[in-house]
Structures are given as C-alpha cells and as structure tokens.
Amino acid sequence: YTEAWNADKTSVHVMPDTPTILLAKANAANISHKHYQKAWDDAKAKSYDIRADAIPIKHAKASRDIASEYKYKETHEKQKGHYIGCRTAKEDPKLSWAARAMLLQNDRLYRKAYHDSKAHIHIPVDAMSVQAAKECQTLVSDVDYRHYLHQWTCLPDQNDVIHARKAYDLQSDVRMRRDM
C-alpha cells in the first residue's frame, strides 16, 4: 500500500495537450541556446557573407573610391579653364600692390604716433604738487560754479512761470553766497 502511494506521488498526471504545457514547450524552444545556434547556422548557410573584411565588400569600396576620385579630378579639370584671376594672391598685381600699401601705411601710422607722443611729458598722477595744483585750479575756476536749472521762455502773462524763475534765481544766489 505505501509503495504504491510513493510511486504515485512522484508521477505527475497532467494532460500533454493543455495550453499551458504547449506554451511552456514553445518558450523552452525559443530560449534554448542549442536551437538558436542551429537556426543561426542554417541562416548563414542559406544567405550571403556579411563580414566587413569580405573580398567582395572590399572590392566594392575600393571601386567606389576610385570612381569618386576620378569624377572629382574630371570635374576639376573641366572647371580649371573657367577660373578667373590668379591662383594665389602673390600673383595678382592689384592684391600684391594693396598688401605693400598696407604695410607702408601701417609703418607710416606707427611713426606718426611715435613722433606725436615722444615730446609729451608724463607726470605721475599721484604727485602731491600736481594734486594740490588741480585742487587750487578747481577752487579758482568759475566755470562750474553756478548751476542754472533752466533756460526760461514764457509768455509775459504767465505769472506762475515768472515766479518760478525768480525763485530759482534766488536759490542759485543763496547757494553761491553760502559757499563764500
């Protein structure tokens, strides 16, 4: 009795055509490395050689490069006759003359600037006597002393504008007297 039970326990009673069993068998076939490798070998045997260093591929690349270079040289030779002017700037007389004129002009400007600035005397900005002289000159100078606020133009009957003008003049005089 127990031997029959143990034997029956280890055997599985599943129908072989159930959908889950069929799906599991298909998945096992898809995942299997052996089946994948066999399918790849069959595809290689039926198809063409796709290695990058295969002789037909190298030959096609070389012939493409030769044809491209030949076409480039042919179009270049055709266009050579249509070019206008000189091949280089040194061969063109106008360009070479302009280059020489530019060099002479630069040299002339350099010498002129040198002669203009060689006679100037440069005094250090922070010299005490220079600073004192500048301050005295600003005190003595009357150029920026009074600040007139407006140039007045108005009609004779505009009393508010005339009054404002007199007020501004008085204010400017008060500032001037305060500084004395």
TrEMBL record:
Record bears the keyword Hydrolase: no
GO cellular component, one term: Z disc
Domain of life, per lineage: Eukaryota
GO BP terms, alphabetized: cardiac muscle thin filament assembly
Listed Pfam families: Nebulin
Name of the protein described by the UniProt record: NEBU protein
Database matches in InterPro entries: NEBU/NEBL, Nebulin-like, Nebulin_repeat
GO MF entry, a single one: actin filament binding
Protein keywords: Actin-binding, Repeat
